[in-house]
Design brief:
By secondary structure, the chain is α/β, with parallel strands linked by helices. The chain has a single domain, classed as Rossmann fold (3-Layer(aba) Sandwich). It is built from 9 helices and 7 strands; from the N terminus they run E-H-E-H-E-H-E-H-E-H-H-E-H-H-H-E. It has a 7-stranded parallel β-sheet with strand order 3-2-1-4-5-6-7, sandwiched between helices. Strand 1, helix 1 and strand 2 form a beta-alpha-beta unit. Helix 1 crosses helix 9, helix 3 runs parallel beside helix 4 and helix 4 packs parallel to helix 6. It is globular. The protein binds nicotinamide-adenine-dinucleotide (NAD). Nicotinamide-adenine-dinucleotide binds next to helix 1 and helix 7.
């Protein structure tokens, strides 16, 4: 129980990495408000599955790219949980295509869902966190935000932006005891990577020293570490969870 009586917001919590993060936090004693875009049924199921007498797990419908929705989420979490100690910016999308074919809307929607969303929630939670002089903010980036990737200029720009935003905020907020770190997953088995064919997966595995794709739980455990007191002296870092790929 590394997060006993802590309170968190996790964006995009109903499936994949986000769902694993919500479970990991809740199983460690943390109450969670998670956001979802459209899947109301999955949200209700997750609430039921993880709520206990002492741990509240609540879904809130909110588009992460909307600033007013982020403000509403924070208001809801403060009201229902009495405070927020941890923010995990996880929501994200891909719209992969070569730059030559990339439309303005392909670029804008990925930047808004993946990068502006991180601004939205960080900004919305800032005053309460500054006031309580405590906070842990974990932003989910990607290894491609470090090394680049053909066919993903929009996604890579958003994830590299998340790393820059993380480091600036780590410097700006350190005096108020707020740690800001990023996690950069490699290839993790979720709906997002389901689109890859076998040939593409084999090509990826050839560059992964640990010789397997990651699981959502691998990322969730890194988020637990960065949410807990075990990482109190760590800020502004990018923790890769990639089976050694980028190394
Ligand atoms: P996923 O597609 O399974 O889940 C993404 C979640 O985010 C979904 O629940 C979706 O509804 C939600 N979401 C997307 N846009 C949203 C919005 N505007 N508002 C609210 N919710 C929104 O993907 P995943 O693989 O679980 O990805 C989670 C995060 O991890 C993303 O930020 C992704 O970029 C990152 N990531 C994933 C991988 C991977 O290999 N799967 C690798 C590196 C980084």
């Amino acid at each position: 129980m590394k997060l006993l009586n802590k309170r968190a917001i996790v964006t995009g919590g109903t499936r994949g990495i986000g769902r694993a993060i919500v479970s990991e936090l809740a199983n460690n004693g943390c109450s969670v408000v998670f956001t979802y875009f459209s899947s109301e049924d999955s949200a209700k199921n997750l609430e039921k599955e993880l709520s206990t007498e002492t741990v509240k797990v609540l879904g809130f419908k909110a588009d992460a790219s909307s600033f007013s929705a982020a403000e509403e989420t924070v208001k809801y979490a403060l009201d229902k949980l009495g405070g927020v100690d941890i923010l995990v910016n996880n929501a994200g999308i891909t719209k992969d295509t070569l730059l030559l074919r990339m439309s303005e809307s392909d670029f804008d929607s990925v930047i808004n869902s993946n990068l502006k969303s991180v601004f939205n929630y960080t900004k919305a939670i800032l005053k309460p966190m500054l006031g309580q002089r405590f906070g842990k903010i974990i932003n989910i980036s990607s290894v491609v935000g470090i090394i680049g990737n053909a066919g993903q200029a929009n996604y890579v720009a958003s994830k590299a932006g998340v790393i820059g935003f993380t480091k600036s905020n780590a410097k700006e907020l350190s005096s108020r005891n707020i740690n800001v770190n990023a996690v950069a997953p490699g290839f993790i088995e979720t709906d997002m990577t389901d689109k890859l064919n076998e040939q593409q997966k084999e090509a990826i595995l050839a560059n992964v020293p640990l010789k397997r794709l990651g699981k959502p739980e691998d990322v969730a455990k890194a988020v637990l570490f960065l949410s807990s007191a075990d990482s109190d002296y760590i800020t502004g870092q990018v923790l890769t969870v990639d089976g050694g790929m980028v190394m």
